[in-house]
Design brief:
The protein has helices at 12-32, 61-78, 109-115, 117-120, and strands spanning 36-42, 52-57, 85-87, 94-98, 102-107, 125-126. It is an alpha+beta fold and 138 residues long. A hairpin with a 6-residue loop joins strand 3 (85-87) and strand 4 (94-98). It starts with 11 loop residues before the first helix and ends in a 12-residue tail after the last strand.
Length: 138
């Protein structure tokens, strides 16, 4: 038998870096699976409950399932994180993946417009995504 070992808790800075890495990996998987209107919101200044929201829209039930499964694969298998919960998978209009510090919302277009999370959490800062091609103003 080996002795029990515990991992020391992450510092606030290390936790924030880890959360951002998870959020960006989730956003990248959504983008790779043709998710639309992908947004990462930094929630740290608004709530202590979680660090980031990832929001994306899918065009069909099948696509939302594929995005969800690919995000699970990336975060669990590749990055070693564990999903705490999932909601809405069978209905597939709003799938919520809870990774504790990162919450991923995958919507169909109608549900995304109805719930308008970006408006509800309008005080959250948007995180720049490397594949966004918008030219800076000025």
């Amino acid at each position: 038998m080996s002795p029990l070992t515990t991992t020391p808790p992450l510092s606030a800075e290390a936790r924030a870096e880890r959360s951002l890495a998870l959020a960006m990996a989730a956003a990248r998987r959504a983008e790779e699976n043709r998710g639309q209107e992908i947004v990462v919101l930094d929630m740290r200044s608004i709530t202590p409950e979680f660090d980031y929201f990832v929001i994306a829209t899918g065009s069909s039930r099948r696509q939302l399932h594929a995005i969800s499964e690919e995000i699970d694969h990336a975060l669990e298998d590749d990055l070693g994180d564990k999903r705490m919960g999932i909601e809405g998978y069978s209905e597939s209009r709003w799938i919520l993946l809870d990774y504790g510090s990162v919450v991923i919302h995958l919507f169909d277009a109608e549900m995304r417009e109805y719930y308008a999370l970006e408006n509800l959490w309008e005080g959250a800062e948007r995180v720049a995504l490397p594949w966004d091609k918008e030219a800076p103003l000025g």
